[in-house]
Amino acid sequence: MKREWKKKRKFRQGFARLLQKMLRKPLLHAPYTGPVNSVIILAQEKYGDAILLTPLLKLLKQKFTDTEIHVVTFSRAVHGFFRSDRNIDRLHLAKGNAWRYYRNILGKRFDLLFNTKDHPSTSFLFQSILLRARCKVGIDCEYHRGIYDYLVDLDYHTPVALKNCGLLDILGKPVQPEECRPYLPEMPVSETVQAFLGSVQERTGIGVNISAGGPTRYWTENNWKKLVDSFPCETFVVFSAPGDREQKNRLERQSRNIRPSPETANLYEAGLIAGNLKLLVTPDTAMVHVASCSNTPVIALYGTAPQDQSRFRPFLVEYRMIASKTNFVQNISVKTVADTMRNMLNQE
Q1: How far is CA 18 from the centre of its chain?
Q2: Is the distance from CB of 167 to CB of 137 less than 8 angstroms?
Q3: Which of 98, 168, 170, 202 could, after both became Cys, cross-link 30 (CB 3.0–4.6 A)?
Q4: Cβ burial 169-180 (10 Å sphere, 16+ → b, else e)
């Protein structure tokens, strides 16, 4: 698996080097002063990345009210996330119906293209070349130089939301970090979730998210139960992805201080529940950024990777970040998380 990953990385880097030799674009200096009537943005593939793109969408619409915003998605999940976003004028799925995609997009010339990746990606570089735009902007890294007209020049470890909003610096409309709070596009809310929200007092419970984006990021079911049992006077709500619902149901049955909650069909429903909490405990996954949308304090559990702890740390919320001494979040002790929770709760 690791060998395969290294092969893919070498291919991406080689493809980027080839484009650099072919294009040799001189780097221009901000601000860009051309027209901004149409902007096309290449959105990353995961929910967390999608959430961290929303501040840019919101601020672009505020600063350039007549701009037509197009977003290209590379996964059906993120396409569904953005489907109801009112700040997007046209949404495109690059890996869906190829004929429809190219018919809708290749005949159009945009004023500005923005690649949101801060590292080389074959798909994103290919689309950057394929799509026609007067000006093309990327995020600075050694593999983007010579390919884009402008580069967002921020440190690699800068939070992703701020890197995305760095496009506004290039457009001569810089913003302050506090303006870059993410949001969740409105989505359907089931009657059961509405009823649950109506039955809970605002900012009282504690949420625990038992799901994660990969096997190394999971805390164990036993750890979650021990944590909840350490706070018998607190009421907890459990969040989970569809694949972890059996574990959620077991925890709700086994612990009296867990309030059973309905299954959420989308991140917007999860966000409404998270917005009612006084604290959320979650591994490094999209729920960290869902908490940012509602300014819910968060305790986030991370592995050892420094780029995850910096680029994807909680943003614009009160938080504590606990890093494992290994690549596995499960090696964070229950005592460490419980002590951190007590510290945060005692500050209220």
Answers
A1: 30
A2: yes
A3: 170
A4: bbbebebeeeeb
**Over 70: is that where the pLDDT of 348 sits?**
no
54 and 120 assigned to the same domain: yes
pTM over 0.90: yes
For 139-202, give the secondary structure using H, E and C: ECCCCCCCCCCEEECCCCCCCHHHHHHHHHHHCCCCCCHHHCCCCCCCCCCCHHHHHHHHCCCC
Domain assignment present for residue 51? The answer is: yes
Last residue of a domain, one of 146, 179, 212: 179
Q: How far is CA 138 from CA 45, 212, 235, in A?
A: 17, 29, 45
Q: Are 265 and 188 in contact (CB under 8 A)?
A: yes
pLDDT at 1 over 70: no
CA dihedral 312, 160, 60, 136 (to 10 degrees): -150
Q: Supply the range of the domain harboring residue 325.
A: 191-345
